[in-house]
Design a protein that fits this description.
Layout lengths: L6 H5 L4 H7 L8 E2 L11 H12 L12 H15 L9 E4 L1 H13 L5 E6 L5 H7 L3 E6 L10 H7 L4 E6 L12 H13 L3 E5 L24 E6 L12 E4 L2 H14 L5 H13 L1 H25 L11 E2 L10 H12 L1 E2 L1 E2 L11 E4 L4 H16 L2
The structure holds pyridoxal-5'-phosphate (PLP).
Length: 385
């Protein structure tokens, strides 16, 4: 029989995170700092809105674009928080999470062979989705010397006449890095000068601890060449509901909508109705969770530095990204041995691209008790080396 699997599907690697976490399944007493998922339940009023939607018989498709009320509330929310206006009728598309938004954004803009610059270390889906869309992903490393921020000169070095778009994510998964307005402006100028499109994944925007988040589309000249992705998974602890959104100028939004209507139709209606409740009444819950993440960050990052794993202070998201260089182990060996010997699960930084080698991603979206216990075990592991 022929091998029916396409070369594209064959060639993309399985997610390094999932592969690593399959190891966990057979183990007991594991503290996992591995999964990038809030440990909080979805705020109750939000869940209730979803349940009530089902009780009321809201079990149908919605408009492909998503419920108009949800798009209106998203428009109001981002207008208020970031000072950038999007028309709910033609510039906002509700997606099944940022994951779908990323996929359709890339498919909407890539022709075969187009190069997609990807600020690395980065979320594991960027390069595979660019490949699946027919593009070629080009990593742009963001190193610790520069607080893991994207550097204009390094970006410039990677631009060729095939470059079409830049994908970036700040606050960043896995480093927690944040780009301030002045940094974004420098990147934006390069994007404009080289006539590139920006795909900005701002799913962690609500989790910005120092100062406030700047949406890159709010900077002069960038709104018309930016697709912004955002969603409810992280800010409102709604990973399982699968609601996100894409904001873009009409022609790009329309192109993404065409793909979305064939592959997804719409995000689940009950999840959209829960998202409406999150935007109407979820602010306090969101702020409560963000305050708790900040306490956890301070506790955990201070602890990592104390036990001999130097860690820059992440200014956003819920990840710490300590270096393991001093231990003499590479990140994969460190993570595998830490799991086997001390039952603490973290993700090797190299899973997030070559620029992440030598680091660990530790998600501090777990209770403070778990973080304290994880630090104890990590310290014991390091002492035993
Ligand atoms: C940077 C980034 N983008 C997108 C996603 C996926 O988000 P969603 O649940 O909205 O699909 C994640 C999840 O970890 C992420 O870290």
């Amino acid at each position: 029989m022929r091998d029916f699997v396409s070369s594209r599907a064959r060639d993309i690697p399985p997610s390094g995170i999932r592969k690593f976490f399959d190891l966990l399944l057979s183990m007991e007493d594991v503290i996992t700092l591995g999964v990038g998922e809030p440990d909080f339940n979805t705020p109750w009023t939000v869940s209730e809105a979803g349940i009530y939607a089902i009780e009321q018989g809201h079990t149908s498709y919605t408009s492909n674009k998503g419920l108009l009320l949800l798009r209106q509330l998203i428009s109001r929310d981002i207008g208020k928080r970031f000072g950038v206006d999007y028309d709910p009728e033609g510039e906002i598309l509700v997606t099944s999470g940022v994951s779908e938004g990323l996929d359709i954004a890339l498919r909407a803009i890539i022709d075969p062979g187009d190069e997609v610059l990807v600020a690395q270390p980065c979320y594991v889906a960027y390069a595979p989705c660019a490949t699946l869309a027919g593009g070629v992903s080009v990593p742009v490393p963001c190193d610790e010397r520069h607080h893991f921020r994207l550097q204009p000169d390094i970006l410039m070095e990677r631009i060729t006449n095939k470059s079409k778009a830049l994908v970036m994510n700040f606050p960043n998964n896995p480093t927690g890095a944040v780009m301030q307005k002045s940094h974004l402006k420098e990147i934006g100028d390069i994007v404009i000068d080289h006539d590139l499109l920006l795909i900005s994944d701002e799913v962690y925007s609500a989790l910005t601890y120092e100062g406030s988040h700047t949406a890159i589309a709010s900077l002069e000249g960038l709104r018309e060449r930016t697709i912004t992705l955002n969603g409810f998974s992280k800010a409102y602890s709604m990973t399982g509901w699968r609601v996100g959104y894409l904001c873009a100028p009409p022609s790009l939004c329309e192109a993404a909508l065409k793909i979305h209507q064939y592959v997804m139709l719409c995000a689940p209606i009950m999840a959209q109705m829960a998202a409406i409740e999150a935007l109407r009444n979820g602010e306090e819950d969101k702020n409560r969770m963000v305050r708790e993440y900040l306490l956890r960050r301070n506790l955990f990052v201070e602890g990592l530095n104390r036990i001999g794993l130097p860690c820059h202070t992440p200014e956003g998201a819920f990840y710490a990204f300590p270096s393991v260089e001093k231990t003499g182990l590479d990140d994969i060996t460190f993570a595998e041995r830490l799991l086997a010997e001390q039952h603490v699960a973290v993700v090797p930084g190299s899973v997030f691209g070559g620029a992440g080698a030598g680091y660990l991603r530790c998600a501090y979206a777990v209770s403070r008790e778990h973080l304290i216990e994880a630090l104890k075990r990590m310290e014991a592991f390091i002492h035993g080396l």
